[in-house]
Design a protein that fits this description.
Layout (H helix, E strand, L loop, with lengths): L1 H10 L5 H24 L4 H19 L23 H29 L12
């Protein structure tokens, strides 16, 4: 997804990548809020669970024809994998640690909120 965003930004005459990342974050917040709302209004849990994957598949089918075509860059010297070196390893390690911490915070915050009775279990996704 990021590679495609970089290609789109390269074809534009202005910076776009920060907007793509902002919309990704907004989508995450809206998704959690929508799911919490559906569970709070006592929507049957099975349809609530299937709403996210069905929405994602629908968005994918709408967006697929509008994606940029793949450009082949194959040559005799291209490789499927390049071993990272130097500062790339450091940045990758920091990014992995950041994502682990972020995931733990997302997982455990809902349990803390519902365990301390700050919100109902259906609304804990808002935390």
């Amino acid at each position: 997804m990021n590679v495609h965003a970089v290609e789109v930004e390269g074809g534009a005459d202005r910076p776009l990548l920060s907007g793509f990342h902002a919309l990704y974050s907004i989508g995450g917040f809206l998704g959690a809020a929508l799911m919490a709302t559906m569970l709070t209004v006592a929507l049957i849990r099975l349809p609530a669970r299937w709403s996210a994957p069905v929405s994602c598949l629908g968005a994918m089918f709408v967006a697929w024809p509008r994606l940029l075509p793949a450009i082949s860059t194959e040559s005799r010297e291209s490789y499927l994998f390049a071993r990272p070196r130097g500062v790339v390893i450091l940045v990758a390690t920091l990014a992995a640690a950041m994502f682990l911490v972020e995931g733990a915070m997302l997982d455990w915050s809902a349990l803390l909120i519902s365990g301390e009775s700050l919100l109902t279990r259906n609304q804990a996704a808002l935390g």
